[in-house]
Design brief:
Layout lengths: L5 E5 L4 H17 L4 E7 L4 H7 L3 E5 L12 H22 L3 E4 L5 H10 L4 E5 L6 H6 L5 E4 L13 E3 L7 H4 L4 H6 L9 E5 L6 H8 L2 H6 L3 E5 L2 H14 L5 E4 L5 H7 L2 E5 L2 H10 L3 E4 L6
Parallel strand pairs: 1-2, 1-4, 2-3, 4-5, 5-6, 6-7, 8-9, 8-11, 9-10, 11-12
Length: about 300
C-alpha cells in the first residue's frame, strides 16, 4: 500500500468484545506491519486496562448503557452519549482512519455513528448468534458485517453479511509449554487431573456460588481446580474462603492473564457459554461443560 493503513477499533466492556478486538488488531499487524491502530473504548471499563496490556493505544469515551430500572438517570446517559459522539468525531479527525471497526459494547455506538456521518467506511464484528443492541442499530449504515453463525440475516441486511467466524486469541495455538509446566505454574500437581472453571472475564455469580457450596466435595475429589472468579466477585469469594478454609487443590484468581497456559493445564473446562469461549474451546478441542447465562439470549 502507498499509504500506511490506519484503523480504529471500537468497543469493549467484557472479554467477549475485547479479546476479538485485540485479535483483529494482531492479525492486521501480521498482514500489514506498518498499520496504525487506535482503540476507542468506554472510560472505566475493562478495555481501558486490557488493551494497553496488549500493546495498543486506547482513548476513552464517557459513555455508559441505559439504566432500565431508573429512567431519570438516563438523562445523564443521553448527555454522555452526545458528549461521546463529539469526542469520537475529534478522535477520528485527528487520527484519520481509513476504516472503523466496531466489536460491540458502549463505545462502538458513538464511534461508528460518527465515522459513518464523516464518510468513513465502517465494519461490524458480531460475535454472537443473537445480535447485540448496538450492532443492530449500527448495521443500517455499516458497510460490512462479519458474523460467526448462520441465520444472521434476521438481524442484518443480507447483502452486507460476510461469514468469517469469530476472531480468537492467536497465542492459544502458539503456546510452547508442556502441560506439566502449565499446571505447575498455578502451583498445582502435574500428576493430577485439572479442571479449569471460568465464568467469563467479569465472572459468573451462579458458577461461583456452585463452587463455594461444594468446597468439601472439592477437597475430597482427587482432582484439582483453577478457578477464575471475575474481579467483581473476587474479594467476597476470598473472604468466604478465609472463613471456610481454601482447599489445597484449588487455585483462585480474579482474572487469568495467560489463558493459553490455563487451557494447556486443563483436562476439562467448565465455562460460561459465551460466543468467544465456545470458539476458543472448539479451536483447542477441549472437553468442556458449558453453562448458559440467564442474562443474555
Amino acid at each position: 500500500m502507498k499509504e500506511d493503513l490506519r484503523v480504529i477499533i471500537s468497543g469493549g466492556g467484557t472479554g467477549g468484545h475485547i479479546f476479538p478486538a485485540v485479535s483483529i488488531a494482531n492479525a492486521l499487524k501480521a498482514a500489514y506491519p506498518n498499520v496504525k491502530i487506535l482503540f476507542v473504548g468506554a472510560q472505566g471499563r475493562m478495555e481501558m486496562k486490557r488493551v494497553p496490556e496488549a500493546g495498543y493505544e486506547i482513548k476513552g469515551l464517557p459513555v455508559s448503557g441505559l439504566d432500565r430500572k431508573h429512567i431519570l438517570k438516563n438523562i445523564k446517559v443521553i448527555y454522555q452519549a452526545l458528549t461521546s459522539r463529539m469526542l469520537a468525531k475529534k478522535i477520528i479527525r485527528e487520527f484519520k482512519p481509513m476504516v472503523v471497526v466496531g466489536v460491540g459494547g458502549y463505545a462502538s455506538g458513538p464511534t461508528l455513528s460518527a465515522a459513518g456521518a464523516m464518510g468513513i467506511p465502517t465494519l461490524l464484528q458480531e460475535q454472537n448468534s443473537y445480535a447485540g443492541v448496538t450492532n443492530k442499530i449500527l448495521a443500517k449504515k455499516a458497510d460490512l458485517i462479519c458474523v460467526a453463525y448462520d441465520g444472521m440475516g434476521r438481524f442484518f441486511p443480507e447483502d452486507k453479511i460476510i461469514f468469517t467466524g469469530n476472531p480468537v486469541r492467536q497465542e492459544l495455538k502458539e503456546v510452547n509449554i508442556s502441560r506439566e509446566l502449565a499446571v505447575k505454574s498455578f502451583g498445582l500437581d502435574a500428576q493430577r487431573k485439572t479442571v479449569l472453571i471460568i465464568g467469563g472475564s467479569l465472572g459468573a455469580k451462579s458458577i461461583n456460588q456452585s463452587v463455594l457450596s461444594q468446597l468439601s466435595l472439592i477437597r475430597q475429589s482427587g482432582v484439582q481446580f483453577i478457578w477464575q472468579t471475575g474481579k467483581y466477585y473476587n474479594s467476597q469469594i476470598n473472604a468466604e474462603l478465609d472463613k471456610a478454609g481454601k482447599p489445597e487443590n484449588l487455585y483462585v484468581c480474579d482474572f487469568i492473564h495467560d489463558m493459553a497456559k490455563a487451557y494447556k493445564a486443563a483436562d476439562l473446562v467448565i465455562s460460561r457459554a459465551g460466543a468467544g469461549s465456545i470458539s476458543e474451546l472448539c479451536l483447542l478441542q477441549k472437553p468442556c461443560i458449558l453453562v448458559p447465562s440467564p442474562n443474555v439470549a
